[in-house]
Automatic annotation (TrEMBL):
It comes from the Bacteria. One of its GO terms (cellular component) is extracellular region. This is Polysaccharide deacetylase family protein. The keyword Cytoplasm does not apply. InterPro entries: Glyco_hydro/deAcase_b/a-brl (IPR011330), NODB_dom (IPR002509), Polysacch_Deacetylase (IPR051398). It is found in: Secreted. GO terms for biological process: carbohydrate metabolic process. The keyword Signal applies.
Length: 338
């Protein structure tokens, strides 16, 4: 029996209506991309338009129309009773503006968008898009690479092989930026890929629409590195300079930051404070209460699979996921994220 079917069966017994607790509780939902219905990327990092719209309908019916992260934290500070939900979108993809924003506005919802300012400014694709591009556009059907003492044979002639290659290579790219760039260049050469991946992040003109629409904008560093692999000064620069660039380009404040890949340690938390952020979010699942530390706020993913049962989109599964009904089933599992 698949995990999805188990969760669907369990959701049938979970509360489906308004069950807000008396004590203030905040659930921050973590999203990334919003795809056109039917679109399937090799590295599928998001939900479809229909699923996002379904999530918002289900949450609104349960009295939990999403707000921004800053608004959710303000509700906690004020002691506002009930279960509050905030939506967040990481990275800064153009589809956050062209697809997510109209759906949010139609639902009367708000969200926070954490933008990777340096990559947006340089019009440069992030490392995971470079990886997917190399595997998808390979002109050679196979190759063998060795990174950091790990030898991997790639068979990228067909979809299943490309998926297997992606899973094998993702953890090998958790290295410092210079080594990451070198490994991706070697991969392109091994697979016969001459061009770089296109940048699918929003440009500044598009990103300004988020501000105009009254959405919260947060930082996601300049170049999306694994922060704990950097020096304390480099961590602080990645954070502070990203906020400065966003202020310059969009004319807005950036109260919060999302650590790329959720990667953080005590030095990262100190660097976020020193950079002037009021809060920071991570990728660990959980809820936020008034006493939660503000520089490692938990977020719960609400993926397409988490909301889809055997008969399609399920409002009950969406609400159960939001309420953390299945957290214990995933205890100890490493969560993917960007």
């Amino acid at each position: 029996m698949s995990g999805r079917l188990v969760r669907w069966l369990l959701s049938l017994g979970a509360p489906g209506g308004r069950t807000s607790p008396e004590a203030p509780l905040l659930t921050i939902i973590r999203h990334h991309r919003v795809y056109a219905n039917g679109e399937r990327a090799l590295y599928h990092l998001g939900v479809s338009e229909d699923v996002l719209a379904g999530q918002l309908r289900a949450l609104a019916a349960a009295g939990m129309t999403p707000v921004s992260v800053a608004e959710g934290l303000q509700r906690l500070d004020k002691g506002a009773a009930g279960h509050h939900v905030a939506f967040s979108f990481d990275d800064g993809y153009a589809d956050n503006v062209t697809r997510a924003l109209p759906i949010l506005e139609k639902a009367g919802a708000r969200a926070t968008f954490y933008l990777t300012a340096g990559l947006m400014e340089e019009r440069r694709a992030p490392w995971w898009d470079e990886l997917a591009h190399a595997l998808t556009c390979a002109t050679r059907p196979s190759a063998t690479i060795e990174w950091g003492g790990t030898r991997v044979t790639l068979d990228v002639a067909h979809g299943p092989g490309r998926t297997a290659a992606l899973r094998a290579l993702l953890p090998l790219l958790r290295v410092v930026p210079a080594e990451q760039h070198a490994r991706l260049a070697a991969l392109r050469e091994a697979l016969g890929v001459a061009d770089r991946a296109p940048c699918e992040f929003a440009d500044w003109t598009l990103a300004r629409k988020l501000v105009t629409a009254g959405m919260e904008v947060g930082a996601h560093t300049l170049s999306h590195p694994f922060l704990t692999l950097l020096s304390p000064d480099s961590q602080r620069r990645e954070m502070a300079d990203s906020a400065a660039l966003l202020r310059d380009k969009l004319g807005c404040g950036t109260p919060g930051i999302a650590y790329p890949n959720g990667d953080h340690d005590a030095t990262t938390l100190s660097a976020a404070r020193a950079a002037g952020f009021q809060y920071a979010v991570i990728t660990r699942s959980g809820d936020v209460v008034a006493s939660s530390g503000r520089y490692d706020l938990a977020r719960r993913p609400l993926t397409e699979g988490a909301c889809t049962g055997p008969f399609g989109f399920s409002a009950r599964m969406t609400l159960a996921e939001t309420r953390g009904v299945f957290d214990s089933l995933r205890k100890g599992r490493v969560e993917a994220g960007s």
